[in-house]
Fold each of these.
Amino acid sequence: MRSSRPLLSVVVPCYNEQQVIAETATQLIALADRLDEVDVELIFVDDGSRDTTCSLLRQIAATEPRVKILSFARNFGHQIAVTAGIDAASGDAVVLIDADLQDPPEVIPAMLAKWREGYDVVYGTRTDREGESVFKRFTAKAFYRLLNRLSDTVIPLDTGDFRLMSRRVVDALRSMPERDRFVRGMVSWVGFRQTALPYRRAERFAGETKYPLRKMIHFAADGLLSFSTKPLQLSIGLGALSSLLAFAGIVYVLGVRLFTDRWVEGWAGLFIAVLFLGGVQLITVGILGEYIGRIYNEVKRRPLYVVGETVGLEPRRD
Ligand code: UDP
Ligand code: MG
């Protein structure tokens, strides 16, 4: 029986998190016990883990009905796992939180308080990033600056996916069918009243990052390409630049010929010009190709994910 209290869904994407998942579940269940103004469901999305994450979750769910599991047929990636959790959530508010306890569950009550004040999105901003390399901090900063410069949607700096969303934001997200999902950007795009909640990002409780550089680059490309078409205009800029250079070259060559008794000769100039133009053209064709590849992926209209098994949930995507 559902009580009259509002329901909070906590969505936890997990990929090979056997070292932390029991602790995370324990902490979230303890939190759920403490929250007496809301009912809680904990949705663990197992993103095709190849370790014992899923069986650990099953054991926990066997004794704790608030724990629900949605298990993918293979690894579909973090953003898709989050999407599946959002699809499955039936709460009046939904919180996204990482499985590795880098996002401290103790922040959730403060998010709920903001939600009760009337905010639709409460996103955590990181005041401190413990245990993250200088390289990751630097690239993250540079990336968000670039993204905000190129995109019309303002995506707050230093935020991850740790956030609370109201039902109407969740419904808006569910109506966005795109494949290349950059969830934090999509939430910003939706609008409504959004506010930041600073928190200290802890170190990963145990285990290793599931975001190697390759995945991070892909993630950054998704963010950039699905929130901006400005890279397409790069070819115009590059075209203008090379025309200008060519024009300056013509003026120079003519000038030398007309006003001195020398003339410009040599294949070096030719060689450089050919390489320069070739480079410019390949870069712009490559950018075009990135967008076309994404269009191709989009028009195939495959489902975003394949569910292998659920516990306590009906999979739905409507
Ligand atoms: N994750 C996932 N699928 C993936 C990679 C990661 O569901 O393919 C989950 C992972 O289990 C964790 C969250 O996404 O709960 C964030 O991953 P991680 O902590 O490894 O990233 P980092 O904090 O190092 O950026
Ligand atoms: Mg992490």
Amino acid sequence: MSTGFFGDIKPVGYEGPESTNPLAYRFYNPDEIVLGKRMEDHLRFAVAYWHSFTWPGGDPFGGQTFERPWFGDTMEQAKRKADVAFEMFSLLGAPYFCFHDADVRPEADTFAESAARLDEIADYFAGKMSETGVRLLWGTANLFSNRRYMAGAATNPDPDVFAYAAATVKHCIDVTKRLNGENYVLWGGREGYETLLNTDMGRELDQMGRFLSLVVDYKHKIGFTGTILIEPKPQEPTKHQYDFDVATVYGFLKRYGLENEVKVNIEQGHAILAGHSFEHELALANALGIFGSIDMNRNDYQSGWDTDQFPNNVPEMALAYYQILAHGGFRTGGTNFDAKLRRQSLDPEDLLVAHIGGMDCCARGLKAAARMIEDKALSAPLEARYAGWNSAEAQAMLSGQRSLEDIAARVVKDGIEPQPKSGRQEYLENVVNRYV
Ligand code: GLC
Ligand code: MN
């Protein structure tokens, strides 16, 4: 039964590139085969509950702009919100969603009561999931909004906060498992510091390492088969966030012996805030073997903060999906729209239009990336660039069969004088331009 929130809007269908219908897909065609796989199975789209259904439209200068019939703090309203959320997932044909505990149920006065409320909503979700076929890409706990977390969750100087956060994550993993979630995300929004004058960094990192180990142990104990993902971000809300970027997270995982247990959920906007491109973070995660999932969005390139806009830069997205496809695509991960409307976009239809645009841009990016892969447009020149390493002598250097003296002796004996070759960047950029 329709909630009526979206009026009499019909399920969004694929109409092809020529369509001018704002409520149709022009590029996202779930059943279309790309590189031998359905587009829907490549992209694995998820809607983020928090931005679309919980965020009120505030900014640092003003509060709520959106008026939604489910805003409030009763369980009845939480269920109305779920009704509309699942209606939207179905209208869009989005196969997945993601949520924090705090997005889906009002917090109560005690931990136990808050947990009971989450269980009640999880049961409600389970019913909606089996009715609609929508699945859970990942669950997570909000360990950053409540004032108890102002000095961190796992990294808090107060061990009671560590314990409270641990209990919260335990329960959220239980719920994620119950709903067959395919991943569990930890974003350390408050795991960082404002000033070293009140911060013992070494101690806080050890706390964070212990916390993550507890989570991994628990996952195995209960047989949760999803992937544990850390989501890097360099700052905001804290000045210095410990999960700065992929490289930093990898170092952290190595130090605590968790590099084979935990992967990363990489967000476009967070990559930009860290001074990287999205594809840099994706390529590095793949190189290090810790790529998991993505949060798709876009930051304003001038303002310098996390604007969480819906994505629309197809050439950039093509390069991002190129990095994903070139390494075999998503396994348990997917494309979560961690994106929110602009605060003046008040209408229910804006929610649909935003997701339709995001999904279409992703589809275009994916298709461009797939064609570059099929044509070996970038991989063939790349292979040629490193071809010298295929020689027996080069392989011997790489595999540790040659010492520094061996190599030095050969340089003299063979009279090696390296001849520089063009990197052909502009040629390659022009190649990419043929596909996007
Ligand atoms: C917060 C962050 C977002 C992250 C999410 C899940 O909402 O802003 O980037 O993906 O938490 O942990
Ligand atoms: Mn995110």
